[in-house]
Each structure stands twice: as structure tokens, then as C-alpha cells.
Amino acid sequence: MDVLDELKRLVTKLDKERIEYALCGGLAMAVYALPRATLDVDIMIESSSLNRSKRAVHELGFTISALPMEFHGGKVHIHRVSKVEPDTGETLVLDLLIVTPEIEQAWESRTKVGWEGGILSVVSPEGLILLKSLRRSGQDQDDIEYLRSIIDED
Asked: pLDDT for 81-97, tens place per residue?
């Protein structure tokens, strides 16, 4: 399963359904020229579009839903849906990250970039720093340093 092909299908579907989103996570890092091997897609959405988003991605094969997850004292809410490729058994995870007051600044920072002949909404480097500062894993620390370096270039 090609993650970028799946992302293109997801973005096309969300745009068609007029659902606002912002790419975040590993694929967003790739937009900012730091490629990462990632086996999931992380998309930020508003809570008011959660049900519409789930219906839209269900039509694309994301039919396996996990229970909603909360992290960092409720600052981060994730609704995970997965897709299994019938021929290969490969799984692709889609995390729908809900905009909460604590991460709203990351949502508001989203920007549009040209991608694959269309437009992709992605969280800004500053917004990604905010999101990654909540987790503070080793990889997140490296990403934060990189993001700060590209912000400083501007």
C-alpha cells in the first residue's frame, strides 16, 4: 500500500466533502523536506466535522475504528481508523487529531501548499513544534530542532 497514494485519495475526498483538515505528523514533516518512513497518516480536524470525516474515509476503506484516545490530560484527542489491503493484508492507520483549545494554535497556523497537482493543507512548522512539544519523544526533539532551523532561515 502506497501511503502517498492513500494520502492523495484522502485529501481529494475531504476536499470533495468540504471538510477542513490539516496534515500533521510524519507526512507533514516530509512536506518540510524531512522525509520520514511512516506507516500512518495524521490529519487534524475540528470536532464538528468528526462524523462527516469518518463517513468520508469509510468510503475509502477505513472501516476499522478504535476507541477514542486521549493523551496529555485531555489536551490531545485522537480517533483512529484503519484500512486493511485485502490482497496483501497491509494496514494503514489514519489518526484524526481533534482540535482542542490546547492545540488550536497549531490548527490556526495551517497553510496551503502545492502538492501532486493540487493543494494540501498542512500544519505550519510552528504548529508542528507545538504538537511535538506535547510528546517530547527523542524523534520529536530532533524534529523540533529541524523545524526551528527552517523557521530561523525565514
From this structure: 999 999 999 999 999 99
